Amino acid sequence: MSTHISAEPGQIAPIMLFPGDPLRAKWIADTFLDGAELYSQTRGMLGFTGTWQGHRISVQGSGMGQPSMAIYANELMEAYDVQTIVRVGSCGALTERVALRDIIIANAASTDSAINRVRFHGLDYAPVADFGLLRAAVAASEAEPPASAVHVGPLFSSDQFYTTRAELTDPLVRHGVLAVEMETSGLYTLAAYYGRRALSICTVSDHLVTGAETTAQEREQTFGDMIRIALRAATAG
Length: 237
Fold this sequence. Notes:
Rossmann fold; alpha/beta; globular; five-stranded mixed β-barrel
């Protein structure tokens, strides 16, 4: 049992799906996992373990932002020996190259957070996905193409949901960034530190250019294509 996760040893699987929203964690467990059992509800951050096609899988809410995500990622990897974490989240499109409900498989993530600056004493560290997971996710999306388009590219992990620096979007887009979210850069850094595998797969829930958006219920319960890609990637090989 760790500080923020009330699971006993052995209750959490080596493979973890990692949504921010704890209610999305419950929806994933109810929809995709067989025999899912709740192992933690400390602070309302739900965690479940079940099986998918014979593979033991856990799903754990991480909260919003890199500080919250880092609490759970650290404890999952250090206290519960989780080996593979696939973030299944939402993101906001920064460019018309991607549309609402498109899926982004993140090969890398930039950030405005001070977390990595503190860790690396001011140096710029480039957090990237595990290549094996990335390759498996792309293969899964090609083998059974989802209804929406799939893109491989970088995300921007922001410390602010309501930014006051809208002018920063243009240089990000000019350098290939597809969308903004709040967790991936920190997750990739922690996975590298612990020597584990991590990947972020995000569905575009709102569009910062067109203004299109999904509802809270849709973000919680209708991003199934992303989950199927994540499960196939996490259990490949």
